[in-house]
Amino acid sequence: MSSSSTRGGQVLDVVHEPSIGDTTPGVEFFFTLRTSLATGRGVCRLAEDQGKWKIFTLYTRINDLNDCPRAIGPHRPKGVEHGGQPGRKNWNDRRRAAVDFENGQEPVALIIGAGQAGLTAAARLKMLGIETLMVDQNERIGDNWRQRYHQLVLHDPIWYDHTPYLPFPESWPIFTPKDKLAQFFEAYATLLELNVWTRSTISNAEWNPDTRSWTVIVTRRKSDGTTEERTLHPRHIIQATGHSGKKYMPEMRGVENFRGDRLCHSSGFTGALDQGPKGASNPKKAVVVGSCNSAHDIAQDFLEKGYHVTIVQRSSTHVLSSSALTDILLKPAYSEGGPTVDDADMLIHGLPLSVLKARHIEVFKRVSEYDSEMLQGLEKAGFKTDTGHDGAGLLFKYFQRGGGYYIDVGASKLIADGKIHVNQGREIAKILPRGIRFEDGTELDADEIVFATGYQNMRTQTRAMFGDKLADAVKDVWGLNHEGEMRTMWQDSGHPGFWFHGGNLALCRYYSEFLALQIKGLEEGIYAYGEC
C-alpha cells in the first residue's frame, strides 16, 4: 500500500501482510500513520457487504509525540560522558541522588503504589523524560504480591502478562508464582532505574489551582531506620493502588465472639496450617465465604493441608477452565508463537467494546461446550455457575464488575467430587463462637473463617488517602459508561492533575502508555486538561 493522505495525517505504510479475520469474515491489516503532532499505528478490518468491501472497524492510536522521542533504541542514554571531568560522580552516585531527589529536585509525577500499575506508569513516564517518584507503604517492591496467600499463582498465562520495555524471559513459566513475580518487580524497578520510596506514606495532599500543582507531605522511613518528612509539589498524582479500593469485609453480628483459630479477610490470609496425620482422623473445619479466584485457591489450600472445607457461595460464579482460557479465549492473540504483544494488544483493544462483547458471546458458546463436563459437575455439587453479563464470559465480568469469576486450576474437580463442600444461596445472619448461622436458621461449624469477599470501589481508597473533597470531585471508577467504554481509568478523572491507573498486568501494560502520553502532552503544552 503506498502512502496516501488522510484527514489530519498521512498513512505511511501497511505493517504485516493483510490477513483473513478468523471471527468476522473479512480482511484485517495494521498500518502506521503520522499527524502534525504524533506518529502512531492503526488496525483496520474490512468486511464484504453485498459484493462491496467496507470498513467494519478502524482503530488508530498514538505511539510517539513528535519531537518527544522515548529514551529507547537510538535515543537511549549514553551512560557516561568521556573525557576529563573533575569531581564527576559515577553511575551509582547519580542513581542515589536521583532516587532521593537531592538538591531541591522535585518529581513532576507522584505515583501512589509500586505494584504493576505504579511500575508500568513509572516506566512509561521515564521513557518520555518525565521525572517520576513512586511511594509505597510496603517494605519492598513486590510485597503487594509477596504477602498474599501462600499458594497464589497467577491464573493468566505469561503471553498475556508481559511488562513494557522488559518482557519476561523466554524460560519464564507459563503461570507465574506470586513470589517469583515479586522478585521480577524488584528487578524491573532496578533495571529500568525507576525511582521509588518504600516504607513511605503521604498526607495533606492539597491542589493549588493557581500553580496547578499539588503540595504533598511524604513521610519516609529510610533503610538506616531514620524517618524524614519531605514536602513535594508534583503537577500530577497517579493513584496506582490497584483497580479495587479498600477490602470489603461484611459487617456481621457476632464477629467479636468468634473463638475459633482464625477469622480474616482473604487479603490477610497467609496460608493454611498443615494438620498432619491428626487431621486425617479429626480434621479442623474451614469455611471460605466467597466463590471467586481467591476463595477457590484458599479452599484448595485448606483441603491440601487436611481441613474439612466448605465454600459459602451466595450468588453465582462464572467458571472456565485454565485450558479454555489459554486454548480458546486468549490463543488467537496471546500464545506461544502468536503475534507480538504489541500486535496482540492492538487486535484486542482495537475493537469497540460493544463489538468485542458480541464476539465474546460467540466465543463463550465454544468455551461452555469445551467445559461442559466441568460445569455439569459443579452444578450437580450445588455450585451455581453463570455465563457472565449477557453471556459474554470472563472479560466482561472483569470489565463490568471487576470480579465474579474463577479460572479453574484444580478446585472445580474437588468441588464436583465432593471434597470441597458447597453451601449455596444462603445469607449469613450471625457469626457464632465456633461457626456461622444463616438467615434460614441453619448452622455451619468452623474453626477458621476466611472472607474472600473482594474489595470496594477504587474511590474508597481515594477517600481514605486524600479525603472527601477529592473523592467527591472525581468520577466513578471502573465499569462501563453509557457508551460501553471503561469509566475514568487512564483518562480525565474529574480533577486536574489526578489520575487513576490499575488493573491486571495486561491492562496496566497497554493503558500505561496512553496515561503517560497524556501527561507528556500536558507538560509540553500540546493540549489543556479536559481537552483530551
UniProtKB/TrEMBL annotation:
Give the FAD/NAD(P)-binding domain ranges. 110-318
Q: Which residues cross the membrane?
A: none
Its keywords, alphabetically, are: Oxidoreductase
What InterPro entries has UniProt attached to this entry?
Auxin_biosynth/cation_transpt, FAD/NAD-bd_sf, FAD/NAD-binding_dom
Q: Does the keyword Oxidoreductase apply?
A: yes
Keyword Oxidoreductase in the entry? The reply is: yes
Domain of life according to the entry: Eukaryota
| MF terms in GO | flavin adenine dinucleotide binding; monooxygenase activity
Please state what the protein is called: FAD/NAD(P)-binding domain-containing protein
